[in-house]
Each structure stands twice: as structure tokens, then as C-alpha cells.
Write a structure and sequence with these properties.
212 residues, mainly beta, five-stranded antiparallel beta sheet, four-stranded antiparallel beta sheet, 42% strand
Length: 212
């Protein structure tokens, strides 16, 4: 026969049957690096910020213990990169070093590979949110090749040049670049192959800004 509860007894829900976060939401963020350029490695470390929370991750998915109160948040995901600092959602290229340091707003011409992602997230209580961050490559590489001509071409021993209109800052939440800066173009002479005799310079840029 089925058990019958006596008239004065009552059933109570067990604490372990209650939702784990009935008044809060929880997130799990998976970084998608598939849009990175050829030959660029996945960063070893990446960061997640949302509201007052900041977390560091080295694996594919970040699942913080932090619980979020219901509301609207900006999720920002980015990776630490050499020569770049991040404050909120604004990335800044460091100043140039050497004889260009502090002169005419020159900035680092070889920052590390930098990726970002932002998303507006609305949190409701008692819900889990699996989120995917499609990481956008922000730093690009530019190579310029110069072929001197004329009688003086063979007597050139050095080319000193710089590029204007390089962005020093980027608000990656709004894709807004700051004022224009300059980068040194480190030209070296090509001595082998089909381009022997030409000069080549390679720089990395956070972006370009201004009209030229």
C-alpha cells in the first residue's frame, strides 16, 4: 500500500533542490578566434569584464563563480597584448621608444596582436547564459616597399621615414578611433631575391584615423 502522511505531518522542500542562484544570473563565455589572420596564434590569456567583474582565462571557455544581479551589462572581452593598455573599453598604443620617444606623438610601431569583442547582455534571475565572443582582430600589419630609381639609387645608405594618421586609441565598444599619431617606418634594404635593391618597412597599426 502507498505511504500515507499522518494528518499533522508536512513535506518541506530540501535546500539542495532549490535553484543554485534563484535571484541572480550566471554566464559562461567561449572565445571564438577563427577570424584571426593566417599565422597568428591564439592568445595565451584573455580577459572578461562585465559590470564590476573582471576575470582572466587561459582556456577556451570562461565560467566565473561570480553571479550577476538582474539588469543590463556590457560584456567586454580582450587579450593582453604587448605595447597596448586597456582601460574600460579603450585600448591605447604605448609611446615610441628610442630617439622618437615623446616626439611629435610617435607611437609604438610593432604592438602585439590584439583582439576584442563587446556585447550588451541582459541578465534575468535564475538563468544561465552561454555566450560566444567572436574575437575581432584589431591590429593589422602593413608592409611598404620602395624602389629607388635614378643615378643616386645605389648610393642610398639609409631611408628615414614615418607614417602619419595612425590611431593611438580605440574605443572597441563603439569602434571609435582617437586623434592621429605617427609611426616610424623602419626601412631596411632587401639584398636577396627578385626585390633585391628595394627597401622594405613593416609596421603594425591599431587603425588609421583622420583624412590622410
Amino acid at each position: 500500500m502507498p505511504a500515507v502522511c499522518p494528518p499533522r505531518c508536512s513535506f518541506r522542500s530540501s535546500p539542495w533542490l532549490r535553484p543554485p542562484h534563484p535571484d541572480y544570473g550566471k554566464i559562461a563565455v567561449t572565445a571564438d578566434w577563427s577570424a584571426r589572420g593566417e599565422g597568428i596564434d591564439i592568445p595565451a590569456t584573455w580577459m572578461v569584464t562585465m559590470g564590476g567583474y573582471t576575470g582572466t582565462e587561459t582556456s577556451a571557455t570562461h565560467t566565473p563563480d561570480h553571479l550577476f544581479a538582474p539588469g543590463s551589462y556590457t560584456l567586454a572581452v580582450w587579450n593582453p597584448a604587448e605595447g597596448i593598455t586597456v582601460n574600460g573599453t579603450t585600448a591605447t598604443i604605448s609611446a615610441a621608444t628610442g630617439n622618437r620617444a615623446g616626439a611629435d606623438a610617435f607611437v609604438n610601431n610593432a604592438p602585439g596582436w590584439f583582439f576584442t569583442y563587446t556585447e550588451q547582455v541582459t541578465i534575468e534571475k535564475d538563468k544561465d547564459y552561454p555566450l560566444t565572443a567572436a574575437m575581432k582582430q584589431q591590429v593589422r600589419e602593413l608592409t611598404l616597399v620602395v624602389e629607388p630609381t635614378g643615378d643616386a639609387a645605389g648610393r642610398i645608405t639609409e631611408i628615414v621615414a614615418h607614417l602619419t594618421g595612425a590611431a593611438r586609441t580605440l574605443d572597441f565598444a563603439t569602434d571609435t578611433y582617437g586623434a592621429a599619431s605617427n609611426v616610424v617606418l623602419p626601412f631596411t634594404k632587401i639584398t636577396e631575391g627578385d626585390d633585391a635593391g628595394k627597401w622594405k618597412a613593416t609596421v603594425r597599426l591599431l587603425g588609421v584615423t583622420g583624412t590622410e
